[in-house]
Design goal:
The protein is mostly helical and 142 residues long. The protein contains four helices and no strands. The N and C termini lie far apart (52 Å). InterPro entries: BRO1_sf.
Length: 142
């Protein structure tokens, strides 16, 4: 949903009508959501006791951490703290899984093309925003 909102904002060219804070919020939420979703996917791949896919989970986390680090950090201090915290969580999980894979599992780590893709479901429909500019003449009393 956040990706859809960001793409709608990009394609419609309505940057001037929307505050910079809202734009930063939408893009930051989108990036954090992707990182958190990929972290949960990696946990899900390793939590199944019958078929543990540690190598695939490592690939997912590597891709997630490198893609988030390529993105420009948000300007707001509170957003930077949230970004850094999520990166630390993902990097710590990645470190633990790499250690486990190196010493126990010895699974092959797939490249980015062989990783599972997150599948999102559309739960809302975007409607176009058409700002109404009601202007009233100003009366200056002297």
């Amino acid at each position: 949903m956040l990706d859809a909102a960001a793409s709608i904002l990009r394609t419609r060219g309505e940057w001037n009508d929307i505050s910079a804070g809202l734009l930063e919020y939408v893009f930051s939420c989108s990036i954090l959501h992707q990182l958190r979703s990929q972290r949960h996917l990696a946990v899900g791949l390793t939590s199944n006791h019958e078929v543990r896919q540690v190598g695939v989970a490592i690939g997912v986390l590597r891709y997630a951490v490198t893609s988030v680090k390529r993105v420009k950090a948000p300007k707001s201090e509170s957003w930077r703290v949230a970004f850094d915290q999520e990166i630390i969580y993902a990097a710590e999980l990645l470190r633990r899984l790499e250690y486990e894979n190196e010493h126990v599992c010895h699974e092959k780590i797939p490249d980015a093309d062989g990783l599972p893709v997150l599948q999102g479901l559309r739960i809302v429909e975007a409607i176009p925003f058409e700002p109404q500019r009601w202007e009233r003449g100003l009366l200056f009393m002297t």
